[in-house]
Amino acid sequence: MEKIFLVGREKLSEKRMQKMDTLLERYSGLKGLYWAKEKIRGL
Fold first, then answer.
1. Is 25 within a domain?
2. Number of structural domains, the chain?
């Protein structure tokens, strides 16, 4: 299985970014966790 949620958003290809956005919309519980992870990475 792909570990798409572990990769930094800036490293995703356009296709994988679209897949990520689709998954985040489908599973809204992950949306907050994913963006929190991205904010922490930015520190």
1. yes
2. 1
